[in-house]
Each structure stands twice: as C-alpha cells, then as structure tokens.
Specification:
The protein has helices at 6-13, 22-37, 42-45, 89-97, 101-107, 144-160, 172-175, 184-204, 222-235, and strands spanning 49-53, 56-62, 73-80, 117-123, 127-134, 165-169, 211-216. It is α/β, with parallel strands linked by helices.
Length: 236
C-alpha cells in the first residue's frame, strides 16, 4: 500500500495563499484517497473501466457487498414491483441508505404499472434522488422490454430533477426470487442474462444523463459485466 506522510497531506489540504472552501477540501481529500488506495485497492476509489456512448459516459464500478468509497451521483435507480416495496438486493440497499424515507414516500404512490417509475429522496452524500424502476408485474414476472422501459423512465425522472449522473446497481439479486437458496451455477446464469439486459437498458438511456455508473457488488459477477462492457464498447 502507498502511504502518504502527514506533512504531504497537510500541503495538499492547505495550498499557499488559497482560501479553503468545501469544494477545495473535498477535491484535495479525494486526491489523497486515490493515492492512498490506488496500488492495492483500485476498485475502492475509481471505475475499473468506462465506455463513451454517444455523449454518455458509462462506468463500471466494483466493490463486494459495500458501496465503493467515492461512488457518488445525482441519482440511483433500483428495481421494484408494482407495490414499490424495497425488500431485496439493490432496492433494499437504497431503502436502508435513506433510512427508509424513500419507502415511506413510495408507499403513497403505489401501485404503479410495469415500465413506470417513481422518484423520491436520496441517500446523504451519495445520491440526491432515488428512482424506483417498476420492472416486475403483480406476479413478479419481467422481460427485457419492461426493464428497458422502466430504467429509461427512471433516468428521465432523475434528469428532470436536475441530475446529470446516476448509479445503476446490479439487478441480479432482485431478479432471482430466492437469492440465498440457489446454486452458484444458477446465480451465474442469472447474472449473465441480467448483465446483458442491463446493458440494453443503459443504451436505452441515451439522451438523458451524461454519466451512468454501473455498480457490481458481487465479485463473482465482475467478469460477466466486464465482458458486457467490452461488447458495449465494440458497439460504439
């Protein structure tokens, strides 16, 4: 690991003859963290790959079961059913990060039809808005068309509320009905199909936000999403 001496950090944080505002301090601290972790833990501080897609930058972030340290955006999109309940996977993460505030707000808007979306409060310091993409019907069924429509609608809502960037976490755990009771092979197959569909949904978001940050939080799925990112790059 690369260590930085205290004196060096002080120099970074207190440039001569410069007034220290919040933006200056945040930028300096971000540079410090990148230098501190980049050799041993590059996934903590920056995307592992990116693709420029006709005016939209698509980034791939990875960090096993916890949000990468410097991953922030104007909004986050998570998958839900028509009742807008946020009980598993990415949806539960967003619910917990907002201290359940987004769930309270969504309860007042439910039910919504598959393909629609709802936007509400975000999580402090990480995402300003949470957009719920309704990708399931009443029987928890879905298909690629509904997923693309719902994600596109959610991205449009984030954009309408002034957002230019969004986090799109891996939907695999939400698509799997009982994620803790399946085999590794079944999970891998689900991750492969989910990654392909999510990349189609990303392409459907062209013309909305400027940056889409895909977050893969299962280390076993990273090679699958990396392969799909390569396919996205080849298509553009």
């Amino acid at each position: 690991m690369a260590f930085i001496e205290a004196g060096e950090l002080k120099t970074q944080l207190t440039p001569p003859a410069a007034k220290l505002d919040r933006a200056t301090l945040e930028a300096a601290f971000k540079r410090y963290l990148i230098r501190l972790f980049e050799n041993d833990y590059p996934w903590v501080t920056r995307p592992v790959s990116h693709v420029d897609m006709q005016g939209t930058r698509v980034e791939l972030w990875t960090s096993h079961r916890r949000m990468p340290m410097l991953l922030k955006a104007d909004g986050i999109i998570v998958p839900v059913g028509t009742d807008l309940k946020m009980i598993t996977g990415a949806a539960k993460f967003a619910r917990d990060y907002t201290a359940c505030q987004i769930q309270y707000e969504a309860n007042g808007a439910a039910p919504l039809k598959p393909g629609e979306a709802f936007i509400g409060s975000g999580g402090k310091y990480r995402f300003k808005k949470t957009a719920l993409a309704v990708i399931f019907d009443e029987k928890k069924r879905t298909n690629p068309g509904i997923i693309k429509q719902a994600v596109r609608k959610a991205a449009e809502l984030i954009f309408q509320y002034g957002g230019n960037s969004l986090i799109l976490p891996d939907f695999t755990d939400n698509v799997i009905q009982q994620p803790n009771w399946i085999t590794d092979e079944t999970r891998r197959e689900a991750a492969e199909s989910t990654a392909a569909i999510m990349m189609e949904a990303v392409q459907a978001c062209k013309g909305t936000v400027k940056t889409i940050k895909i977050w893969v939080w299962d280390k076993n799925s990273v090679p699958i999403f990396t392969r799909e990112m390569k396919r996205l790059e080849n298509a553009h």
